[in-house]
Amino acid sequence: MKQKPGRASRASRSDEPRESAIASGWRVEGSADPAASDAAAVDPTLVSDAPAVAADAADGIVDGTGREADETTDDAATDPAVERQQLSNGALVALGVFGGLYLLYTWGWFIVAQAYSSVNSVTAAGSGAIGGVLQQIIFWAAPLAAPLWFFTALAFSKGGRTKRLTILLAVGAILLVPLPMLIARGA
Amino acid sequence: MAKRILAWAAGLILVLLYLYAVVAGIGNFVGVVGLSEALSTGLSASGRVWLIVGVAMPAVVLVAALLFGRRRSAGVRILLLAAGVALVAAWQIDLMHVIPESSYFA
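The joint structure predicted for all components is written out below.
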């Protein structure tokens, strides 16, 4: 690994214990990526005791160089602005899993609404001019239920409230099951 | 100011949809009762319950949406009201599909 000449002695001294101590951790990934060792200024091994360089490392976290760097620069990378921008792991998993499920629900409700659209237009035809329009609007709101619930859950869990986000999305996943897709008519 | 008027207009239109859903539920109730009298069977107990659910559900969802939207921004409240309307729509289709029409009559 390249070292800056001015800090070579200190860095090499601090480098030796690290090689053995963190062998099972992020070190593997760092050495697997040659570009990272070239960019010595952003290398997480050098920044743990240098706050000025730690800011560079924090910038590196933002553009996706990984959580490993976040862990190694433990006390240095606590820039609150960076922390607030990141989604927690749990939030990412919740959004991914439930996002896929809600997409399926949207598709399911759209198919159901399409299947019942002729029934609904008969109902709308018997509801007067204004009532017919309102009936059609309400009926075709059904496919929007899943995405609207999703975005409402997001709006209600701003600021990293992952637990609340997960609960809201799970409740919605139960309430919005497209039953007509799963149960035979009148069963 | 224009933003405020727009938000109120959107909110009122959404509340109108809830009110229409309640009125449609009442109309459903009256219509099915008339039909059951024409068939001289009367309503079944479960049929009565489901008809009442059809009337009450939009009102309950509206009240819940208004309660949860307290002290929130206008955008979130409108989003909540819209999600509630969509929820009512989905449940109405659920009711129509899952509960057989014949079970409304005794």
